[in-house]
Structures are given as structure tokens and as C-alpha cells.
Design brief:
Elements lengths: L2 E5 L2 E4 L4 E8 L7 E7 L6 E7 L5 E3 L7 E6 L4 E6 L8 E9 L2 E5 L3 E6 L1
Parallel strand pairs: 2-11
Antiparallel strand pairs: 1-3, 3-8, 4-5, 4-9, 5-6, 7-8, 9-10, 9-11
């Protein structure tokens, strides 16, 4: 079965850093993209970043460019999201998803990120 398990969220002050992890299992890791999404209370879910496990190509939303870095460890079937210079508007539940051709069909349970002023 496909499983995606996020970890690494928490409460930090503005300007701080967190590293999120997405551990994947149940599928051929390097055949799919892994994406990070977030949802704040009262807002729509938005894409944050994604990576192709096969060639390492990456995407970042404009709001996080220069602050977040996505990476993949294929040996561990794990994708990381290093988040630096965190802002209160980064607060939300962060999810990782399995992507193919731009569509995401499987999701993790989410991990909460809260950034205080």
C-alpha cells in the first residue's frame, strides 16, 4: 500500500527554521514526483514545492523561493523540505503527496507548522 508519512512540524518563532520529512513506501519512489502542500485556516490548499525523484528537478512557489529547499534521498525513499526564515504566513498544515503528470492521488496525514510573530 502507498504510505506517505510527514514529520518535523512544530512551533517556531519568526525567522526560525524547520526541516520537514516525507517518508514514502509502497510504490516505486523514483517514478513519481513528491509535492509539499499547505493549508492555513480559512484558506485553500496551496502548492509549496515539489521534486521529481527521477531527475531531481524542483519547483517552488513564489512565496517560498529563496527560503525553502526541497531535496530527495532516494536510498531512504524520503523527501525533505528545509524551511528557513519562516514567517507567520507560513503557518498551516503541511502535506506531502505522490504526484504523476501533475495529479496527486495519495497524501500523508499532515504535520502542523506554526510560526509566531
Amino acid at each position: 500500500e502507498v504510505q506517505l508519512v510527514e514529520s518535523g512540524g512544530g512551533l517556531v518563532q519568526a525567522g526560525g527554521s524547520l526541516r520537514l520529512s516525507c517518508a514514502a513506501s509502497g510504490f516505486t519512489f523514483d517514478e513519481y514526483a513528491i509535492g509539499w502542500f499547505r493549508q492555513a485556516p480559512g484558506k485553500e490548499r496551496e502548492g509549496v514545492s515539489c521534486i521529481s525523484s527521477s531527475d531531481g528537478s524542483t519547483y517552488y512557489a513564489d512565496s517560498v523561493k529563496g527560503r525553502f529547499t526541497i531535496s530527495s534521498d532516494n536510498a531512504k525513499n524520503t523527501v525533505y523540505l528545509q524551511m528557513n526564515s519562516l514567517k507567520p504566513e507560513d503557518t498551516g498544515v503541511y502535506y506531502c503527496g505522490q504526484g504523476l503528470s501533475g495529479a496527486y492521488g495519495f497524501w500523508g496525514q499532515g504535520t502542523q507548522v506554526a510560526v509566531s510573530s
